[in-house]
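Re: [help] complex structure
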Amino acid sequence: MTDEYGNIWAYTLKWAYTLLVVVTLMTPVFYVMYISFNENGFGAAEYVFTFDWYRVILEDKLLLAALKDTGILTIITTIIVVPFGLLAAKFYKRTRYKVLTVSLLLSPLFVPSDILGSALLVFFKNLSKTFEALSDWLGNEWFYGWFDLGYMTAIIGLVIYTLPYVFVVILITMGRYREQQTEAARACGAGAWQAFWHVEFPQIRAGIFSSGAFAIILSFNEYTRTSLLKGGYDTFTTVLISQFLNEGMSAQSYAMSSAVSFFAIAVIGSVIIYTLFRSEKLDRLARDKAQPVMSS
Amino acid sequence: MNASETPAVEVQGLSKSYGSVRALNGVEVSIGAGEYFVLLGPSGGGKTTLLRTIGGFVKPSAGKVLLHGYDVSALPPDKRPTTMVFQSYALFPHMSVARNVGYGLRIKKLASKEIRERVDAMLELVGLAGYGERMPHELSGGQQQRVQLARSLVLDRDILLLDEPLAALDANLRKDMCLELKRLQETVGITFVHVTHNQEEAMTVADRIAIIADGKLVEAGTARDIYEHPVKRFTADFVGENNILDGTLAAADGSKATIDLGFGRVDVPIDDDVATEGAPASFSIRSELLKLFPAEGKLPNGTQALNGTYDEAVYLGLTISHMVSLPNGAAIIVRNIADAAEHQKFERAQPVRIVWTMTSAHLHTS
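Output below.
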């Protein structure tokens, strides 16, 4: 406890409450993981540890195809949304109209996922018809099918969904960066891109990678918008939900749910562990070099 | 500055507006090659905006910036023959001292060996030999400022812009760094354009000083001219400790002007007819050029006096400041060396006379 005049009981209660919230959030996840390794499934009297259910899902061709499509969507969304989020954050830092900028960029968060998905569905259908009309007017088929439901429409929906999160994470990281360093790099002869790459990026890199990890997890787990905009293929979560609806919670479903959780924990955990190790390494280097600093 | 030489920096009719706020208003400045030029003025006066416009970090709303005779107004900072030192050091925290200093040379794609040699030479020049592998956060404020200087000077550009480079340092360190900057500038021989609001700093380093306030160039001249012979009322008010009294011009005969202060009249030397009679005018005199005498008694020849009431003395170590009130309520400061032999003690509320020689005072009509 850093506050020597603080109340020890209030301090203990605060941390106990925090722990309770974390346990409440994570217990269902860990329980599902526990069930997923039980040969006899949920509610069985006997627990027999097995990897069988994971073997089943890995042999499920429909599921593997869905996983592949999910991976493609996730990767393309992340590649698009992270630079968008970075540009948005840099624009926010420079513009005088900060409230308007933030309102516009965070507005997707305030629209329920099913309404946003439905609105985009209608939008794409109308856009498709407009482009087809344009093609007919031009006397060719160049613009046919551009906005038919498929990868592109799903990716646009995912980018709209993940952009606010990516923007906020990068903006928070950029809060510690001083623009004068970019000016100093320009004064040394660096062009705008060189100043960003050599000076700014190394200092906000952690935030950019974190926002990328965030975008990956959000895209992988997203169901409502994707199911409305994806067209004729499946994603991992749409297969998972379909199985829930059609067959109930099978042992295979537990394994699928746990696989998604493992993936998310692996991504976040990697970022945290890397950050901790790097921080410890930098502290160790600083301690090794520490000398009394003389004013001169 | 030789009239036939092309100025290193020339600013013509420079204006900059941010919406309805006019940060710079028709500024015209000329800085010679190899000169140590200081932009001095109050905070918010436009001196940093002017410096950043010269450096290419701010685009002017009107006017031109010429460097060595070439119009660079449309060029970004990396394309100008200038480099800059910032108030907050702006070192790259993820690079060592050597990599910070060598950054511009790496951008130029020089050979590694040449970069290493030039960095080592520059660190030696700024007194940081052997500090190449340190990281910026391991350095003191003064050391970080030296690294910034090294990073700028290693580029061999001939115009260095300094934006309040000593503002973040403590008073003693600032004095040392002032002399260090002056020495460096004399050693490398390039043009320094230095922004500060600190008069002592300006007077220590400058060949010439320009007073910038409210987005305008108020006055420019050598440190001695600015301090001893201020032309504008603002300059007299800002530089040094001047007592300024406002009145109206009662008479002017070409060598002397008489100012009516309301409670008395004073004569001020002038070179020319400066204004019409009845026009507003101010009279200024430095506090160290005033002397205090009792209300009765003979005064030295060739002096002028105003009557006042003694308030108090403030001991400041080297000097003592005597506060005196005039009949119109204005306060006058008379400053003397503390251990001078001719001090006379005065009592609070004692009538006194403030005495000066006419040539010590200045007339200001603007």
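Chain B touches chain A at residues 55-57, 76-78, 82-84, 86, 88, 90-94, 103-104, 107-108, 127, 134-135, 137-143, 148, 151-152, 155, 161, 170, 173 (CB under 8 Å).
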